[in-house]
C-alpha cells in the first residue's frame, strides 16, 4: 500500500502512526485511515481488502464514486455497516500577491488579478465512519490530515480538562472535529474576506466605476452565491447526520450513552458554526448587492445631472437666440438697426439676460 495511505491507531490517550497496515483491527481503540483522493483511487483494491478484513464490509461502488468525485456537493448517506459523509471544506486558497521589483531590476510580471472570494477553496473531503474505523479521503493539497495527525500526536498522554484537548474517543468524534475545523477555517478568514471586499468596493467608487473593477465585483457576487449554496448543502448534510444519530440503537451502558450525548453536542456545535458561516456569507452577498445597486444609482444620478445641466444651458441660450433671431430679420424699420450704439445696446441686453439666468439657476443649484 502507498505511503500516502496513512494508518493511525487511537486508543485512550495514545496516538501512533502504524508503519504498515495491521492484519486485523486492534482489540482496543480504533483506526484512522487517511489518504488523498489520487492515492485512494490508485490503492482502491488494497483499501477495500483491509476494510473487508477489519470490518467485514467494504465500501459500496456508488460510495467509492462519491469519494472520488471532487465536485460532489456536501451529502450524507448510510448503510448498516458505516456512515458516509462528503463535506466540502472552506479552506484558505492561494492569494495573489503584488510583485514589487527590486531597485535596479526590471519589473516582474504581476500576478493575475483575483477576486477576494477566490481565497476560499471548496474541495470535497470524504468520511466513511465505521464502528472502529474512520476512512478519510482528502484533496491533494488538504492540510486537515497533517494538522490533525500532528495535533493528536502532540496530545498523546495529555489529560487536560478541556474536551477539545482530549483524544477523540470514537471515529465519529474524530470526523466531527475535522468537519468543525474545516468550518472554523472560514470563520477565521471572514474579517479578512470582508475587508478585501470592502476595499474592492471603495477602489471601484474612487475610480469612478471602472469596468474592470465592476467585473470583479460581479464575479465576487456570483461566487458568493455559489458559496451560499455550498453552506446550505453542508447544513443539510449535518442535519441528516444528526437525524441518523438520533436513530442509532439505544445504548445500555452509561459510558456509551455519555459518548452518544457528546456526539450530539458536537454535531449541534458544528451545525451552529455552519449557520454562522451562512449568515456571514449572506451579509457579504447583501453588501455586494448593495454596491451594485449603488453603482446603478450613481450612474442614474450622473445621467440626471448631465441632463439637468444641458437643460439649464438650453434655457439660458434660448432667449439669446431669440434676440439674435429678432435682430437678424431682413427689415428696414427695426429699432436700433441703423444706430451706432445699436450693437452695444443689444449686446448689453443679451449679457444681462444671460448673466441673470445663470445667476438664477446657480442659486437654485441647477448648476454646479
Structure description:
With 368 residues, the chain is an alpha+beta fold. The protein has 2 domains: 6-299, CorA soluble domain-like (Beta Polymerase, domain 2, 2-Layer Sandwich), CATH 3.30.460.20; 328-363. It is built from 8 helices and 9 strands. The protein has helices at residues 37-42, 44-55, 61-68, 144-154, 171-206, 211-246, 254-327, 342-363; strands at residues 6-11, 14-18, 30-36, 75-78, 83-88, 91-92, 120-121, 124-129, 133-138. The protein has a 7-stranded mixed β-sheet, with helices on both faces. Residues 94-113 have low confidence and may be disordered.
CATH topology name of the largest domain:
Beta Polymerase, domain 2
Strands ordered across the widest β-sheet: 2-1-3-9-8-5-4
Which consecutive residue ranges, at least 5 long each, have pLDDT under 50?
A: 94-113
**CATH class call of the largest domain:** Alpha Beta
| Number of helices in the DSSP assignment | 8
State the helicity in percent bands: 55-70%
Largest sheet: 7 strands, mixed
At CATH level 2, the architecture of the largest domain is 2-Layer Sandwich
What is the fourth-level CATH superfamily of the largest domain?
A: CorA soluble domain-like
* Averaged pLDDT: 81
Domain count: 2
Task: Write the element-wise H/E pattern from the N-terminal end onward.
Answer: EEEHHHEEEEEEHHHHH
Structural class: alpha+beta
Features:
single chain, 368 residues, alpha+beta, Beta Polymerase, domain 2, 2 domains, two-stranded antiparallel sheet, 9 strands, 12% strand
Amino acid at each position: 500500500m502507498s505511503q500516502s495511505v496513512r494508518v493511525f491507531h487511537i486508543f485512550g490517550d495514545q496516538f501512533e502512526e502504524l508503519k504498515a497496515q495491521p492484519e486485523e483491527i486492534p482489540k482496543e481503540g480504533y483506526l484512522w485511515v487517511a489518504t488523498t483522493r489520487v492515492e485512494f483511487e490508485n490503492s482502491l483494491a488494497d483499501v477495500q481488502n483491509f476494510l473487508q478484513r477489519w470490518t467485514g464490509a467494504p465500501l459500496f461502488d456508488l460510495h467509492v464514486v462519491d469519494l472520488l468525485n471532487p465536485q460532489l456537493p456536501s451529502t450524507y448517506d448510510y448503510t448498516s455497516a458505516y456512515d458516509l459523509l462528503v463535506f466540502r471544506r472552506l479552506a484558505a486558497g492561494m492569494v495573489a500577491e503584488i510583485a514589487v521589483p527590486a531597485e535596479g531590476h526590471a519589473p516582474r510580471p504581476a500576478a493575475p488579478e483575483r477576486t477576494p472570494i477566490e481565497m476560499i477553496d471548496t474541495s470535497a473531503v470524504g468520511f466513511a465512519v465505521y464502528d472502529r474505523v474512520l476512512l478519510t479521503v482528502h484533496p491533494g493539497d488538504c492540510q486537515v490530515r497533517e494538522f490533525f495527525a500532528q495535533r493528536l500526536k502532540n496530545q498523546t498522554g495529555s489529560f487536560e480538562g478541556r474536551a477539545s484537548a482530549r483524544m477523540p474517543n470514537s471515529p465519529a468524534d474524530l470526523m466531527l472535529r475535522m468537519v468543525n475545523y474545516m468550518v472554523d477555517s472560514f470563520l477565521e478568514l471572514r474579517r479578512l474576506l470582508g475587508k478585501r471586499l470592502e476595499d474592492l468596493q471603495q477602489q471601484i467608487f474612487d475610480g469612478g466605476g471602472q469596468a474592470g473593477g465592476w467585473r470583479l465585483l460581479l464575479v465576487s457576487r456570483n461566487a458568493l452565491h455559489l458559496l451560499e449554496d455550498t453552506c446550505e448543502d453542508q447544513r443539510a448534510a449535518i442535519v441528516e447526520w444528526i437525524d441518523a444519530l438520533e436513530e442509532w440503537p439505544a445504548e445500555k451502558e452509561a459510558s456509551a450513552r455519555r459518548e452518544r450525548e457528546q456526539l450530539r453536542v458536537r454535531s449541534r456545535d458544528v451545525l451552529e458554526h455552519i449557520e454562522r458561516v451562512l449568515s456571514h456569507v449572506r451579509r457579504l452577498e447583501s453588501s455586494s448587492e448593495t454596491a451594485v445597486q449603488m453603482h446603478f444609482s450613481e450612474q442614474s444620478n450622473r445621467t440626471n445631472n448631465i441632463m439637468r445641466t444641458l437643460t439649464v444651458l438650453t434655457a439660458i441660450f434660448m432667449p439669446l437666440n431669440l434676440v439674435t433671431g429678432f435682430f437678424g430679420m431682413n427689415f428696414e424699420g427695426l429699432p436700433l438697426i441703423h444706430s451706432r450704439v445699436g450693437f452695444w445696446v443689444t449686446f448689453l441686453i443679451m449679457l444681462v439676460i444671460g448673466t441673470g439666468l445663470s445667476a438664477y439657476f446657480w442659486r437654485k443649484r441647477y448648476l454646479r
